[in-house]
Amino acid sequence: MHNFSVYAFLVFAVSCSFVSCTAKTFAKESVQKNVIIQQAETDSEMEKLDSVLAGMSDRFKADVKISDKNAFLKDLKVILDEDKKSNPEDLSLFSLIDKKHFVGKDYVPANLIHLENNEFYKVNKNSLSLRPEAYNALTELAKAACKDGVKLTISSTYRSYEYQDNLFNYWVSVDGLEEAERESARPGTSQHQLGCALDFAPVDDAFAQTEEGKWVYKNAGTYGWSLSFPQNYEDVTGYRWESWHFRYIGVNACNFQKKYFADVQQFMIEFIDEWKKS
User: Fold this and answer.
1) Phi-psi bin for 238: left (phi > 0), alpha (psi -120 to 50), beta?
2) Which backbone phi and psi does 219 adopt, to 5 degrees?
3) Residues 235 and 59 sit within 8 Å (Cβ to Cβ)
4) What are phi and psi of 137, to 5 degrees?
5) Residues 6 or more apart whose Cβ sits within 8 Å of residue 118
6) What is the C-alpha to C-alpha distance for residues 275 and 266, in angstroms, rounded to an integer?
7) What is the DSSP code string of the chain?
8) In angstroms, rounded to a whole number, what is the distance separating the alpha carbons of residues 72 and 260?
9) Model pLDDT, residue 19
């Protein structure tokens, strides 16, 4: 009986050892398989990145330099993951809207919030509104400005398709079609229709030299606001320099734009659009 117990114990021990070895082998093979899958995904994304970059404009290629593509892809994932969390009723904060890319005349952002004069900023119209994330970011931007002794004035925010149509036709009547095309969007092509763009006052080149303008240029990105139409990029954006026009894209996207896209919003938005379509 004693010998049988010893034999049974040995059999049990060998069985446990076999099971343990089998489990370790399975775990090792599983890890190796995951590594292979992850590497394949990385290789695929790298190929996609090279393909998208190859298809960008000559000006883009001249200005945009990505030295560490692995780091770039990691940062890009953060931006795209944030974008997925946006309100599905709204267009993406990174929607490409310009002279070639349109928004339908019926599009109105969901849950627009009305802007009113308050302790942090002023409005020079009582018909202004922004989508919630832009509204909240404006409040944070304005609070920070007030702490530095600067009070911002907002001149324009969301515009409907019809409003933009009337505005564009007005500028055509004032400046002629050629000049109007440089400084006013046709209906359906204005960032303002997205509900996340605004104009600071004064709506004039002089804004950049005001105390407010200098503060905004220095601090806007910290609160997720990006200059849409920078100086010397009319061939890229389609519009002359508008020192007063900013678009909310989020803090991480502002950093991403500055790190990889020569701090040019249009380059980043065009890239993201192509990436999503590829």
Assistant:
1) left
2) -120, -10
3) yes
4) -70, -35
5) none
6) 14
7) -HHHHHHHHHHHHHHHHHHHHHHHHHHHHHHHHHHHHHHHHHHHHHHHHHHHHHTS-HHHHHH---S-HHHHHHHHHHHHHHHHTS-TTSPPTT---SSSS---TT---TT-EE----SSEEES-S--EE-HHHHHHHHHHHHHHHHTT--EEEEE----HHHHHHHHHHHHHHH-HHHHHHHSPPTT--GGGGT-EEEESS-SGGGGGSHHHHHHHHHGGGGTEEESS-TT-HHHHSS---TTEEEE--HHHHHHHHHHSTT-HHHHHHHHHHHHH-
8) 8
9) 55
Tokens of residue 231, six digits: 């100086």
The pLDDT value recorded for residue 40 is 58
Q: Which amino acid type is present at position 29?
A: E
**CB proximity list for 224: less than 8 A, separation 6 or greater:** 137, 248, 249, 250, 251, 253, 254
For residue 82, which of 36, 121, 133 has the smallest C-alpha distance? 133
Taking the C-alpha atoms of residue 202 and residue 156, their distance in angstroms, rounded to an integer, is: 10
Please give the C-alpha separations between residue 146 and each of 98, 200, 216, in angstroms, as whole numbers: 33, 15, 12
**Which residues make beta-bridge pairs with 121?**
152
Residues 6 or more apart from 234 whose CB is under 8 A from it?
182, 240, 241
Mean pLDDT by 10 residues, the chain (278 residues): 55 56 62 53 90 97 96 98 94 97 96 97 96 98 98 98 98 97 97 98 96 98 98 98 98 98 98 97
Sole residue written with tokens 């599983």: 30
* Virtual torsion, Cα 177, 179, 180, 183, nearest 10 deg: 160
Rounded-to-integer distance, Cα 27 and Cα 57, Å: 47
Is 230 in contact with 262 (CB distance < 8 Å)? no
